[in-house]
Each structure stands twice: as structure tokens, then as C-alpha cells.
Amino acid sequence: MTAAVATAPATRRAPRAGRGPRMRRRLAPYVFVLPFVAVFVAFSVYPLFFTARLSFTDWRGTGAATWVGWDNYTYLLTNPAFWSSLGNSAVLWLLIVPVQMVLGVLVAVLLNNAKLRLRGLYRVAFIVPFVTPLVAVAQIWVVLFDQRYGAVNAFLGLFGLPDTGWLTTSAWAKPTLALLFLWKTTGFIVIILLSGLQSINASIYEAADLDGASKTRQLWSITVPLLRRTLGFAVVLQTLAVFQMFAEPFVVTQGGPYNSTTTAGYYLYNHITRADLGTGAANSFLLVVLVMALSLLFVRLLRAKD
Amino acid sequence: MQRHHLRRRALLASAGLAATAPALAACGPDIASDEDAGSSSLLKAPDRREGEITIWDRSGDLFEVFEGVIADFNAAYPDIKVNHVAVDIDAKLQNTLITGADVPDGVFLDDAKVGGFTEYLWDLSDVLAPYAADIAPQKLDVNTVNGGVYGVPFDLDPGLLFYNATALEAAGVDVAAIATYDDLLQAARDYQAAVPGSAPIHLEQSPFLGQLQLEMYASQLGTSIADADGELRLDTPEFERILTFLDTVRKEGLGTRAEYLTPTDIAELDNGNQVFYPWAIWFSFAPQQVLTATSGDWRATQLPAWDAGGARSGAMGGSSFVLPKDGANADLAWLFYEFLMFNEAGYTAVWGPGDVYPEGLATSIPSYTPAADPAAPLYSGITALGGQDLWTVATEAGAQIPGGTPTPSWWAGAVDYLGNDLQRMLDGDLSPQEVLAKSTDDIQTNLVDRQ
Amino acid sequence: MADTEARTRPRIGSHLFLMLLLAAFLFPVAWALLSAFKPADEIIRSPLTFDPTQFTFDNYTAMFQDVPIGQGFLNTAVVLLFKGAATMFLAPLAAFAFAKYQWIGKNLVFGAVLITLMLPTIVLIIPLLLEMKELGWVNTYQALILPGAVDAFAIFWMRQVISAVPDELLDAARVDGCGEFAIFWRVVVPVIRPGLAGLGVLTVMNIYNDFVWPVVAASTERMATLQVVLSTLAQNITGNRIGADYATVTGELLAASSVALIPLLVLFILLQRHFINGILAGSVKG
Questions:
Q1: Rounded to whole angstroms, what are the CA distances from C189 to C95, C170, C192, C197?
Q2: Which terminus of chain B is more solvent-facing, meaning fewer CB atoms within 10 Å of its CB: N or C?
Q3: How many angstroms separate the CA of residue C163 from the nearest CA in chain B?
Q4: Where is the secretion signal located (chain B) (predicted)?
Q5: CATH code for B159-315+397-450?
Q6: Which chains touch C (3 or more CB pairs under 8 A)?
């Protein structure tokens, strides 16, 4: 039915038989992408241009906007709070991505063994956190890590450890948030790495076995190098996610204590709550540029090694 | 319920994907379109007496109190239907005002936040004129921005010294002798000597409430973060004195550091470790509804003075009602608030005994002086305070609150600086002087200069 | 895929490691689901125990009374239905055009899609909100459904999947006289079914769990999705908890979180094979 719609213009324009199918084939992709492009332009491209213009004004959501040139950008770039928000995101990146990659490779390699008992159970269990709604688990995190009534401190107390202010001290808030992120997304990374492992030819390992290479040796000298592109993909994916992180601090810590969990994304949100929309827009662009630069950097690094 | 008073462009009415083209044709933000800067934002009292108003309140005890008052309002205005909604105002108001969709006619708002929204609000100077002379000056100050008044003042929240009378008496500490903050320090030392391990004075750990309490102390001294022109006046001897007091409490180990009425705080109140709580009158909520072991042991008195003979109270927090310009029937909402605040039947229904508070709304007093008459109490004996007549204590304290303490529009934003720095001082990481210098600098750059 | 899986039975250490990890991964969810059935006071008094004799529905009863969670489910269901259908149909269709046709502007548009992948959601919040205002869509289902109706990641992923479909298959269909859409519908869709199943689960998950945009776009309770309802409840415990009874709120929160968790958990466990295989089919190969 829809096919008839798609081909109608072609038949009108090409009266001669025989040219119809080729014409249709040339026009088809335009028809296929049109709905997507319409939604995309209306709700992604247009707002992006709007943001660009907004970033050069001092608009506060009402009244007239004054053109302020690069003011918002210089304000941010000279503001320690802006840099500390990037610093917070960078620390979170360090706490998350390396740990996640090491853990991910280990688990994926173990799960890739067909002889592993309970393999199906593990695969499902590790991805359960990824499926759960963030708002719900973030709530659970708040309750679990409560200093006075949380299960975590109760558990540590069994070993005589003192209560820790997981979410109320600057020293612990970031690791606690990183733990939430690790818990929530590591299963997904495992599955991605598993897909990479499955395309490695088993005969390589057989040869290594014959040469007497130990399993640890094989992991480092065969698996990791061959998994490089998949790992790279995972690193880029998680880098984007960490630098965009917003909902986690929004629900769990509201950026505190002392802004220690004010991530790049959460700092941006602060401008919006203060109706400082121009600065918010400028901050958006700085963040987009940073995220793109980081992604390109990782892609480059991985290519260079090829 | 749903009222779209937005002008939809005819072309866009078809919605869906067709929206793309016209949206693009507009090509860039339509930023200044719907606001003619010159238009008057002065609310006029309406001639009509019928319609429907939407009123936003925070969920919780006050929502229930106001819900109960609607019937009284309708007795006076039978043709105004009140659509009363419980809303997370902090989360929703900003976006609702920006988009102008489903805007309520009246909103309950923290005094400290009124200044941030004035561009969206009716200036109430005209309708409030007949009552202005009888409203507590501090409440008019906090609602006044550039000569306009943007909120109908609701409650007056005098700071009081709450204390655990039973525990203090057992320790032999005489509260009646506390006239200055130096006396308070001494009383705390005495209590600690009698009850080893106790930390008698509350030190607030939430940056927002800590800053609010700081303003209470400052209000006693007749000052605030910024003056009427929005100029900072933080780096002054008054603020240094207050911070030095708090720092002394910390240094001598006399303070219990906790967030207001969180589980830790409640536990320390109920076990007798924390016996002095210099706070706004709304702390009375705790003995009435939260504390278990020590409910009935608490009493309230006036705050100590900074200098002998100085003001024995300052204002802390409080709320007002604001009327958004985009609310279709904001003028009728004014009639609602006028009835609640300035009509005897109204304020009696709000503060007098009711379903929610059988002994009356003893967590604040009216800001309208005729309603806050010491001789005509709206509530009196409070069981949770051992039957104490809180009305008299509060109205006498309220009458002493100095004026001249306006709230700048960026007050809530300052919590990131002053509020946080104050906490760092209580951590022992900053000195009072450092807090004032650093906060002044940060607030100037990030808030004052960017208005 | 050739059997490339490792060769020896894993040692006891590996099992121990995996078991520990398993416990850590399941504990928070299991703890929440169980604790929601404890008396509210017990949740905070002894968070590590579970006494079956004290089993109670009180938290659920209180939660259903206080929280408009039914309305939240209804709104989420509506959004899920329309937005999900749009993504599941339009994303593979567009991806088909990217993967199997040459057309003017293809690289430009695809580049734009890639850039969108890097945009933090929150960047577009304000302009989108103002756009909704201009359209008169604030607090409507359109506002919740249309922005992001065709996810950039879905396009990117489906393009990977469809690229793997052999061209010969398409040409053979053309020889048989199939129209271009018929090729998509009758040839491509059946072939990529595993990938589509994966996309389906991921899409349901993304829409169900979406939070940042709905919280801004729906300012009235009437339009609040499940996640918005949850986050509002959460404010009682994290933000404005002044005077709130910590135990009661915690109990209600755990009950609400459980209610929000369960549908997705059930769906996932039923469809996990498709989901995992879908991701395996779609991701970048080493």
C-alpha cells in the first residue's frame, strides 16, 4: 500500500515503460528518509540553531533579548565553576571507564566459554541493571547509601567499620555516583565485548595453546589486541555517556555536596534553573565541542594503532 | 482543566510533521515577540465576582490547611470556583512561566524566590495599598523589587530560641538568664559539663537552610546580604560577628551538625544531646508532629540579642502568594488571597484551630498586624510545647523584627557560594573572614554582575 | 558465526568471581523488591534483615493512595505505543535508505545523525520547550511523543544491521518485480528480524525509562509519565524532606520503584534472548 504512494510520482514523470523501476529506485530513498528527516529537522536541527543564536544573548526567558556577543562564552571560560564541572566529569570518567573496561573484558572472556555452567543466568543477571529505570534505581541508591539508615553502612558495620557519609561528603559522593553508573551500564558493555569476542577465530587460540602460551598471556597478547575496535567503540560510547551524565546527580545528589558531583551536564542545568538561558546555551555548545573532540580523539588513537 | 490560551498559528494547527516548514520559516528564536516592555504590569482589583481560579500550593500540611479554607472563601464569594492543586513548585514554576502554558492564577512561593520571577508577575502595589501600612515591614521588603510589590505576604516567621526545658532544668541551666548570644554560649558550655558527650546547639548542615538561618541572625542586626539597591553588604562587621559566633560553637564542640529534621537531627533532639535550636517559629512543627521522646519537653522563647538590649528576634524564611501575569484569572486570585490574609473570617480560618492543626497553625503568625494581635490570639496553648502560649511569645518577637532587610532576586542562587562556604567553615576549612571575602567575590561575579 | 568460544572448563576461581559479581549486580534490585514488603520502620531500622512474619502490603497501599502512579502508567503506555511505533517503523526505513541507496545529501544527513548522537539531551531542552510553546503543545501527548520519535542511535544501529543484508537478495526481488517499499517490507524486514527484536526491546526500554524531557515537557500531573511521578516522589526524600517522615517516604519510594521496575524486568526476562542477540548482531565487530 505504502509502496504505491512511494512510486506514484515516478510513474507520472516517466511515461515510457521500462524507465519506471529505475526511476522509482532513484526516488525511493528520498521518500524513505523523508519522515525521519522531517522529525529530525523539526526537533533536533532547528532547536540546535536556536541554541546557537540564544548563546549570544542575555535572554532570561521573558522580555527582550540583548545581543551580547561572546560574553557568555568568555564568562564561562574564565569561570572556575565551569572548569570544576568539567573536572568533576573527568574524575568520574577516570573512576568509571578504565574499571569498566577491565571488568568488561574479564567477564566477557569468562562468559564466552561455552562450557561455563549457568552461562545463560549470568548473561541475563549482568544486564538486569541496564534495563531498570534510572530514576527507580537512583532512588534505591539514595536509600541504600544513607549514612544513618542505609543497608551499605549496616553491612560494613558488621565488620566494625564506622558509618560513612557516602552521599554527604565530597570525598565519597563521586565514587558512590560512579558505582551507580558502573553497576547500571557494565552489563551492556559486557554484551558489546562479547559480540567482539565471537568474531575472533578460535584457531588463533588453538595455535597459542600448541605453543604453550598461558591463558593470561593469551588474554593480553591475543584477545585484547584483537578486541581493540570493539573496545574503542565501547570507550567512545561510555565517554559520551559520562560527559553527558545528568540524571544520576540530579536524582541522587543534586550536584552536591559542595558541587562535588556537579557534572558538566548538571552545571548546564543550573543555568536553566536560574533562567540564565543565554549562558546555558553557550555552555551547551562548549560541551558539544568538548564531547565531539573527545570522541574524535579516541577514534584517532585507535586508528593510529591499526 | 486544560486551557490553551496560546495563539496557535493557523498553519500549525494541523500539527504533526507539517509543523516543520513553518517552524523553520520563522528561522531562529522568536525571542522578544510576546512581551511589550512598556505594558503596565500593575494589577487592578477586578469588578467581576465570578470565574474559576487555579491555585498552586506545596503538598503537605499547608496544602491541607488552605484546602480547608476554600469553603470559607466560597461563603463570601460563591461564584469563584477554586481549583486547588498540590504542585512541586520549585520544579514546575520556572518552566510553566517560560512556556506560558497552563499557568496558574496564584502560587505559593518562598519569599526568597519571589525576586527571581518578578518579570512574570503582577505588581501588586495598587491592590495592596489599603493594607500596606498594616503589614510587617520585613514582609513588604522581601516582596519589593524596584519599587513594585510582587507577592501578597503570607506568614511572618520570627526567629525564636527553642529549647528542651526538661533536659536543661535537669542539668541546672537557667534559660531565663540567656539574654545575649554570649550567654547562650555559656549555657551550652554548662549543659555540656552536666551532660558529657552532648552538643547542645543546632548547627545547620543544609546549605540552603544554613544561609536562611544566617539571614535570621542578620535580620536581628537590621541587615541582610544586599541592600535595597542590590548592593552586596556581606563583608561587614555584622556578618563577621555572626559567623564568628557559629565558628565558636563549632570550635568548642558545642554544636550538633545536622540537616533540619532529617533522621540524624531528630535522633539527636530526642536523645537530649541537642537542646538549643535557634530557628524560625516553624520549628514548632517538630515537637508537634515529628519528635517522640521529647515532645512536650520543648518551649520557645525570644532569641538572645547580639548586644544587651538589642532586637530579640529576626525573620527567617516565610512565604507569599504571587500572581502570574499569564494566569487568566489572576485578578480573581487576588480576591482569594485578600480574603485569606486581610479578612477576619479568612485569617481566622487559616491560623485558627482546624482539621489539620487542632490547636491552630502554630508554625507561623500572620504578617498582617491586625491579625497578629497579642490580645486576640488565633491560637494559644500548644500541648507539644507543654501547653505554652506560643502566640504571645511569637507576636511579641515578631513586633521586634527590624525592617530594611530586602531579599535580592538572586538570593537562592547565592546558596552555591555563601551557603556552601558557610558549610565549609563549619567543616573547619574556612575562617569567617575567608567566607565573607570569598562569597562576596563569587556572588558579585556570578550573580550581581550577570543580572 | 563459527564456534570460536574458549576451550576449557573454567576454574573454580572464575566461578567465585562471577558469583560475587552476580550478587553485587542483583542485590540492589532484590533488596528493593523485598524491602518494599517490610514495615516502613523496619526498612530503616534493620536494612539487612527480612522477617517473613512481618510481610506487609502497607507500603504499597500507602503509595497507591498518595502517588498518582496509575496516571503515570497510563501516560507512559500512550507514549510508548505511539513513539515506539514511530521508531520501529521509521528508523529501519530511513536506515534502509542510508544502507542500500545512493542519494544526494546522504553523507551530509548521516553526518548530522552522528553529531546528534553526541548531543547531551539537556542541550536541546530549552529550545525544544520554546518550540513546544510556539506550537501550543506544552502539556500534550504530542510534546512527549514527537521530539526524539526517531532516535539517532536507532538509525545508526539499523544501518549497521541492514548493511549486512546481501545486495543480491534485493536485486533478486527487483527482478521478481518487487517495488522498492515491497523490497523493504518483504525482504529486508524478515531478514533483519533479530536486529529488530533487539531494537524493539531497547526502544521500549529507552522510552519507558526516559526522564529528562518528560519532566520538563509535562508540567501537570495529568501528563506526568511514570518516571516523572517517581522523581516527584523522590523529592520528598532527597530535596524537600523537611518534616517528611523518613521511614514512610522510604517505604512508599521502594514500593513505587518496585512497581516501576517489574514490568520492564518481566518484559526483559521474556525477551532477553532477542535483546542480547540483537545487540550482538548490531554492534561493531573486533
A1: 12, 12, 5, 11
A2: N
A3: 28
A4: 1-25
A5: 3.40.190.10
A6: A, B
Which residue, B291, B297, B287, is CA-closest to B270? Answer: B291
Spatial neighbors of A295 by CB under 8 A, at least 6 apart, are A236, A239, A240, C118
C30 and A CB contact within 8 Å:
no
Residues in chain A with CB shorter than 8 Å from the CB of B29 are 50, 53-54, 59, 65
Domain B44-157+317-371 in CATH: superfamily?
A: Periplasmic binding protein-like II (3.40.190.10)
> Chain C within 8 Å of A297 (Cβ-Cβ)?
no
Question: Which residue ranges make up each domain of chain B?
Answer: 44-157+317-371, 159-315+397-450
Strand pairing class (B152-153; B381-382): unpaired
> Which CATH number does the domain C70-209+262-282 belong to among 1.20.1300.10, 3.40.50.300, 1.10.3720.10, 1.50.10.20?
1.10.3720.10
Q: What is the ipTM of this complex?
A: 0.85
The chains in contact with chain A, meaning 3 or more Cβ pairs closer than 8 Å, are B, C
- HEC sequence for A233-289: HHHHHHHHHHHHCCHHHHHHCCCCCCCCCCCHHHHHHHHHHCCCHHHHHHHHHHHHH
Out of C132, C221, C242, whose CB is closest to B260? Answer: C242
Q: Which residues of C94-122 are buried (b: 16+ CB within 10 A; e: fewer)?
A: bbbbbbbbebeeeeebbebbebbbbbbbb
What residues does B69 pair with on adjacent strands? none
* A41/B119 Cβ within 8 A: no
Model pTM score: 0.85
B245 contacts: CB under 8 Å, gap ≥ 6: B181, B185, B217
Tell me whether B100 touches chain C (CB under 8 Å).
Answer: yes
Residue B232 and residue B19: Cα distance in Å, rounded?
48
Residue pair A199/C286 in contact (Cβ under 8 Å)? The answer is: yes
Chain C 175-234, CB below 8 Å of chain B: which residues? Answer: 215-216, 219-222, 232
The alpha-carbon radius of gyration of chain A (Å, integer) is 25
Is B98 in CB contact (< 8 Å) with chain C?
Answer: yes
Count of Cβ atoms closer than 10 Å to residue B413 Cβ: 20
For A17-69, how does the pLDDT look when each residue is reduced to its tens digit (9 = 90+)?
445 777 888 889 999 999 999 999 999 889 988 999 999 999 887 777 889 99
In this structure, which amino acid lies at residue B148? G
CA distances from B66 to A139, B318, B350 (A): 31, 16, 7
Contact A134 C269 (CB under 8 A): no
From chain B, pick out residues whose CB is under 8 angstroms from the CB of A270.
416
Cβ of A112 within 8 Å of Cβ of C5? The answer is: yes
Q: Which amino acid, B391?
A: W
Closest CA to A154 of C35, C235, C63, C259: C35
Q: What's the pLDDT score for residue B3?
A: 33
Question: Cα separation of A131 and A244, whole Å?
Answer: 19
- The beta strand positions in B165-239, using DSSP E, are 201-204
Closest CA to B239 of B444, B446, B440: B440
**Nearest neighbour of C246 by CB, restricted to B30, B90, B263:** B263
Backbone angles phi, psi at B58, to 5 degrees: -70, 140
Cβ contacts (< 8 Å) between B61 and chain C: which residues?
243
Q: What pLDDT digit, counting tens, does each position of B354-409 carry?
A: 888 889 999 999 999 999 998 999 998 899 999 999 999 999 999 899 888 888 88
Sign of CA dihedral B92, B97, B103, B108: positive
Is C245's Cβ below 8 Å from some Cβ in B?
Answer: yes
Which CATH superfamily is A72-305 part of? MetI-like (1.10.3720.10)
Range 196-215 of A in CB contact (< 8 A) with B: none
Domain boundaries, chain A: 2-54, 72-305
